[in-house]
Write a structure and sequence with these properties.
single chain, alpha/beta, six-stranded mixed sheet
Length: 221
């Protein structure tokens, strides 16, 4: 069985480098374009999904809808696939954080994730990993032998969380692989054991990318 974890298309908050988290922000025109281009390329390469899950947040569910267009599949929403929550920091640009709270409160999240302590109502990484592990064990593994290819439409930190669990990566390397909008991460499952085949693959011209990340994440979640 193959499982494809796909990050959502671009939103205006992505473009403005705002912390998005579980705020329900829709795709912008570029995000819709990226999803349609990705859907077309996946079909050309023979991707046929026979089951699909999506984060309930609209930027992921709309991306999923576009990727499944014409398939007849209805994706199953799951709260465990929502993006990591940034609490009271959501909606802020990175350059606003220090001015607003007197410190770059989320710098450890991006630069030292193994030692990140969530504040101001934000979610910590172990909690994210716990809910993703539950989803993997309860929803994905039982599909082996029943499905050939499964789509999971989700978010940047969620994709990374699955890679930490399945590769596995240490939490210290949580940000080691950027996730572009509509990037695809492919995992093969044989007898319940995952093998990551590839990460952060895009199916569109790289010139369509709005920005290239620096060391610190650029408001991508």
């Amino acid at each position: 069985m193959i499982v494809d974890f796909v990050r959502h298309g671009e939103t205006q908050w992505n473009k403005e480098r705002r912390l998005q988290g579980d705020s329900d922000i829709p795709l912008n025109d570029k995000g819709i374009e990226l999803a349609f281009v990705t859907a077309k390329k996946l079909k050309e390469e023979g991707f046929v999904f026979d089951h699909a899950f999506t984060s309930p947040l609209v930027r992921a569910s709309k991306t999923c809808e576009i990727l499944l267009d014409g398939s007849g599949l209805k994706p199953q929403p799951d709260q465990r696939l929502k993006e990591i929550c940034f609490g009271g920091y959501e909606g802020m640009r990175f350059d606003e954080l220090k001015e607003a709270v007197g410190e770059d409160a989320l710098a450890p999240f991006f630069n030292d994730p193994a030692n990140y302590v969530a504040k101001n109502g934000a979610e910590d990484i172990p909690h994210l990993l716990t809910r993703l592990k539950s989803f993997w064990e309860e929803e994905i593994l039982p599909l082996e032998g029943k499905c050939d290819r499964v789509l999971v439409a989700c978010h940047g930190a969620v994709c990374r969380g699955f890679l930490v669990l399945l590769k596995p990566y240490p939490i210290a390397e949580f940000w080691g692989n950027h996730q572009f909008n509509c990037a695809v991460n492919e995992v093969k499952v044989i007898d319940g054991k995952p093998e990551v085949l590839w990460e952060n693959r895009i199916f569109y011209d790289p010139s369509l990318v709005t920005f290239i990340p620096k060391k610190i994440a650029d408001g991508e979640a």
